[in-house]
Design brief:
Blueprint lengths: L1 H27 L7 H12 L3 E3 L3 E4 L3 E6 L2 E3 L11 E3 L1 E7 L1 H4 L4 E8 L2 E6 L8 H8 L19 E16 L4 E12 L2 E2 L3 E12 L4 E14 L4 E15 L5 E16 L4 E15 L7 E13 L4 E11 L2 E10 L6 E11 L1 H7 L15 E10 L2 E11 L2 E10 L2 E12 L15 H7 L5 H6 L1 E13 L2 E13 L2 E11 L2 E10 L6 E12 H9 L4 E14 L3 H6 L2 E14 L3 H12 L12 E14 L2 E10 L3 E10 L4 E10 L3 H4 L11 E9 L3 E5 L1 H23 L18 H11 L3 H12 L5
Parallel strand pairs: 7-9, 8-9, 24-25
Antiparallel strand pairs: 1-4, 2-3, 3-6, 4-5, 5-8, 6-7, 9-10, 9-11, 10-12, 12-13, 13-14, 14-15, 15-16, 16-17, 17-18, 18-19, 19-20, 20-21, 21-22, 22-23, 23-24, 25-26, 26-27, 27-28, 28-29, 29-30, 30-31, 31-32, 32-33, 33-34, 34-35, 35-36, 36-37
Length: about 775
């Protein structure tokens, strides 16, 4: 609208000059109506447009040279279809003659009635005032006025200016937009150079797209100083009221603009604005039901149109308990605008904003988002925005660093001291089914389109972060994303007295997103890790592991079911509290022998000296082909699998009883030294079952004992040679004597069969 205002001022000035020329012509020729044709021809020759004086001209000569006219019309530019470019219903102007002899200009009240101005832009961007402005720009600059020559502008006086019932229309064929100012009334009291004079104005405003209408009413004190080339506006007050149509996002706006002082140079484009204050209330569909009240204050604005610079001091914007304070400078306003400065957002309650906009947000901690603030330096150039020395305060968390968008790429380098993200997540629903959360999580889609449009590079570091009950310290994440290829590397953190190192890549460039994980954990304490991940607190120890995994899918659920790769895990100095494998084995043994169950130690606990396992992952199922676990009395090996989809496990192990003194003193288990007991561990991952298979072990014992009996009988019958036995006789010079002694000590076949039957029957022998 600044350019439109300039055009309006230009048109009014041209009309004023036209009035003065007309007055002079009428002064020379007593009947001005006889010369309407000459005036019309002169204007048409100068502008290239049609010009018509439809009403009569009236002339009075003394003591004022006064001219009045009826309707006058200036045609529209070629290629535009308005009925006219400018039209007035009537005008009156007067000039006092005697002061002219003293080189003083005294103009009476200038009245303009029924101005109708049509401004238009066609589909190619050409305006219907280009020819008028270009013609004015091509005119040679005026000759400098020497002191004593011409009239002294400091003595210029104007009796006043009155504009009644004026209308200005603006239309743009490129987007179909139309603006209208109707019923413009303006009153300027008598003007003396260098002295303030009251000015009042009012108008109605309409907009086509979207449909909006309103009224504006203003007043000010205007000071003209043409000798110094300066215009000053003081105590400007403008009241504005706007209502929007059904399709308009803005339903209503009521506000007031107050400016203490505006100083503008007529020769250049320098403008200084001091003490700006704007307050208003807006109602819109996306705003709270009772609207939003905003307050804008600026101490000072310095604008230089010739240099294309602007400086804004002490900008303050307040709305909905949110305040922005800033100082900024701009350059290149006529070409490529560049703004920079500092800003501060004092602490405010973000929860209050969410409540005002009726956003349904219930965090796990009701105390979050109560204290939010920010500050820093900014630089804006076109679509690029960069924040330096940036600080964001979020409750008890502080973020520092740099962030922005440069050449279309998001860049950042940020440090966070301490944040508990679980506080900001929705609270857990204890009444929900156990698999409901997993099902909801599985339905989350990978935002492929968003990732393809993401262009980002940066790093952020976090001193401490808590997420999903996992607690990381010294977290470092480097992010690089381009055309759908997103990679987090390097990625590392301290985790429960150990270290996590990862390299995560998500490739969304193809039809189906692909995930690749290369992760390691070193020396991590198992108890807090299992408690955080699975709510299992029975396991303790130190875990090391390497995971090389990949998955494909459009959702997290598909990713989980297509997870493939390899992994290796080792566990040292561990214990399984709540599960006493040794007691369960002894209890099963006692039941098999018909004895009472042995007393269990309290609390139940299984120590695991060492555990090593390697596994492959296929379609979300972890299959372990190499498994070794050492317990104080057992060495367990075997195979099994963990189903990550259903969170269940199924392992079949062979537990070999170790030859330890404690085992020898155990009346239930002492004779099992060196024997192997099949074990099955299955069930839910959080609470597995341990089932010893003594039946299989007894079957093995019968098979071994029977083999010994057969060999013994065969030897006695001479069918089997002694060297076929497991233990050959001693080889020394007294071999025959040693063999005889061995025969005497060897139990008879009857004794061995009796002992075997006792074992099968549950006897203690």
């Amino acid at each position: 609208m600044g350019r439109i205002g300039k055009i309006i001022a230009l048109v009014l000035a041209a009309l004023f000059v036209l009035v003065v020329v007309t007055v002079l012509l009428v002064a020379l020729f007593f009947d001005p109506n006889d010369y309407k044709d000459r005036i019309e021809a002169a204007v048409e020759s100068e502008t290239g447009r049609s010009f018509e004086i439809a009403g009569d001209l009236e002339l009075r000569l003394f003591p004022w040279l006064r001219v009045t006219s009826g309707e006058m019309r200036l045609g529209d530019a070629e290629g535009f279809d308005a009925e006219h470019f400018a039209r007035i219903e009537g005008m009156a102007a007067s000039l006092r003659l005697l002061p002219l002899l003293q080189r003083r200009v005294e103009i009476g009240t200038v009245r303009l009635v029924g101005l109708d101005l049509n401004l238009a832009v066609d589909a190619d961007g050409r305006t219907n005032w280009d020819d008028l402005v270009d013609a004015d720009d091509d005119a040679p600059p005026p000759e400098p006025v020497e002191p004593g020559d011409g009239f002294d502008l400091r003595d210029l006086s104007i009796g006043g200016v009155e504009v009644r019932n004026a209308n200005v229309r603006y239309s743009d064929a490129r987007d179909g937009q139309r603006y209208t100012l109707d019923d413009i009334d303006l009153t300027l009291d008598a003007v003396r150079m260098g002295e303030p004079v009251p000015l009042q104005f009012s108008a109605r405003f309409t907009q086509a797209l979207p449909e909006m209408a309103g009224e504006v009413d203003g007043r000010m004190r205007l000071t003209l100083d043409l000798a110094d080339g300066r215009v000053q506006v003081a105590r400007l007050r403008v009241d504005l009221g706007i209502e929007g149509g059904a399709a308009a996002p803005l339903r209503a706006l009521d506000g007031r603009l107050e400016i203490d002082d505006i100083v503008a140079g007529l020769a250049g484009g320098a403008v200084r604005v001091s003490g700006l204050h704007l307050d208003g209330r807006a109602r819109a569909d996306d705003l709270p039901a009772d609207g939003v009240t905003a307050d804008v204050r600026i101490d000072r604005v310095d604008f230089d149109g010739d240099a294309g610079t602007v400086a804004v001091q002490a900008l303050r914007v307040a709305a909905l308990d949110l305040t922005l304070e800033a100082d900024l400078e701009g350059e290149g306003l006529g070409n490529t605008p560049r703004l920079s400065g500092r800003f501060v957002v004092p602490d405010f309650s973000a929860r209050g904003l969410l409540d005002a906009f009726e956003v349904d947000y219930t965090p796990a901690d009701e105390g979050v988002l109560r204290r939010v603030g920010a500050e820093g330096r900014f630089a804006l150039a076109g679509e690029d925005l960069r924040l330096d020395d940036f600080m964001l305060r979020l409750d008890d968390t502080r973020l520092d660093g740099m962030a922005g968008r440069v050449n279309g790429r998001i860049v950042f380098d940020l440090d966070v001291d301490d944040i508990d993200l679980d506080r900001y997540l929705p609270p857990a629903d204890d009444e929900a089914p156990e698999d409901e959360g997993s099902g909801d999580l599985d339905a989350v889609e990978i935002p492929s389109e968003l990732l393809r449009d993401l262009d980002a590079e940066g790093e952020f570091r976090v001193g401490r972060v808590r997420l999903a009950d996992l607690e990381f310290t010294d977290l470092v994440v480097a992010v690089r994303a381009e055309n759908g290829d997103v990679r987090l590397n390097p990625l590392g953190a301290s985790l429960y007295e150990g270290r996590y190192i990862g390299d995560i890549r998500l490739d969304a460039r193809g039809d189906t997103p692909r995930l690749a994980l290369d992760e390691r954990v070193e020396g991590v304490q198992l108890n807090p890790l299992m408690l955080a991940m699975f709510e299992v607190e029975q396991l303790t120890g130190r875990i090391d592991g390497r995971f090389s995994l990949g998955a494909t899918g459009h959702t997290l659920g598909e990713m989980r079911t297509t997870l493939n790769g390899d992994m290796a895990v080792s566990l040292d100095d561990a214990a399984w509290t709540g599960v006493d494998i040794w007691h369960q084995i002894r209890a099963a043994r006692a039941q098999l022998q018909g004895r009472s169950a042995p007393q269990r130690s309290d609390p139940p606990r299984t120590e695991i000296t060492e555990l090593q396992a390697t596994a492959t992952v296929r379609d979300g199922i972890v299959r372990s082909e190499e498994f070794l676990a050492l317990l104080p009395f057992l060495r367990m090996t075997g195979t099994g699998e963990i189903n990550l989809v259903s969170a269940e496990l199924d392992y079949r192990l062979d537990a070999q009883f170790l030859d330890r003194p404690e085992l020898a003193r155990d009346e239930l288990m002492g004779e099992l030294r060196g024997r192997t007991l099949p074990l099955r561990i299955d069930g839910a991952l959080a609470s597995p079952r341990v089932r010893p298979d003594f039946g299989a072990m007894v079957t093995g014992e019968i098979r071994d004992r029977a083999s010994d009996v057969v060999r013994d009988v065969g030897e006695r019958l001479g069918i089997t040679r002694r060297r076929d036995r497991d233990e050959p006789p001693p080889e020394d010079e007294d071999g025959d004597e040693a063999e005889a002694e061995a025969e005497e000590e060897r139990p008879s076949t009857e004794d061995r069969v009796r002992r075997l039957l006792d074992r099968i029957g549950g006897g203690g022998g």
